[in-house]
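Dear colleagues,

For the upcoming journal club I promised to circulate an example of a predicted protein-ligand complex. I picked one with zinc ion because it came up in last month's discussion. The inputs are reproduced below in full, followed by the predicted structure.
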Amino acid sequence: MRLIPDASLRMDMPRTQRCRHQTFTPSIGAFAGLTLICLFVISGCSEGPQGTGPGHREQRLALTPSQELQVGREAYQQILEKAPVVESGPEVDRVRRVSERIAKAVQIEPLQREINLQLDGYEFEWEYNVVQDDQANAFCLPGGKIVVLTGLLQLVKSDDQLAAVIAHEVAHALAHHASERIARERTVGHGLLSLSYNRQQETEADHIGLFLMTFAGYDPDEAVEFWKEMQNAQGGHLHLPEIISDHPSDNRRMQQLQAWVGPAKAAKQALDEGRVLPISRR
Ligand SMILES: [Zn+2]
């Protein structure tokens, strides 16, 4: 048993202190040639939040697992009925190729556990569709229902960049952000407090998404590159001050993403080499 702190997934969010997990890795098949099964010895728990949400933060949800799936299914069906869905061709192949790799990476147990993703009882019926629309956007509804707009496909310069966006969107679904928003809006409404919660979700989706794309075998540097290009394309104007926007400012977002690239690569390498995973301490 070895501990490799530098290879920690470090998925915990700020102010979260985690138990010290020691892992060793006698390997048996996991998926796609990646072999890993981890046995965990938990020792030396430190004080700190031990909530049920991502990074062990507190998280209140409004929907049960089956309600979440139902909401995702119904909304997806409604959207696709009205939208100009691209039925086939290279754009569809590309989105499916990248999305399938992201969806497979979701199954990596050490990643799930380190993020503290609550997936027990949740069903993900992954679906991937491309919609003809000039907006550069994508989303993933609860239950794994992905839509990528053609405007985004014209903007991304590589599969890695597309993976960065899809992984961010999938992270929202994995972290049950829609259900959490409903729960929050019932209690705090739509005011400034709600906006700050939304920013927290965005930051969290960036964080989870960056690790997810890396574990799917994509280059996390391209996530930073993509947001840099987005910022340049927008010419640095027409930005809302961060306090009234529900997205972190592009500068802050890039700094955060950049800071997570090293740990994400180290964690992926540790996984590939069957080394110790994970230890997470702050
Ligand atoms: Zn987002």
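Two points we might discuss: Strands lie at 20-24, 29-31, 34-35, 39-43, 85-86, 127-131, 138-141, 145-149. The chain is about 50% helix and 10% strand.

See you all on Thursday,
B. R.
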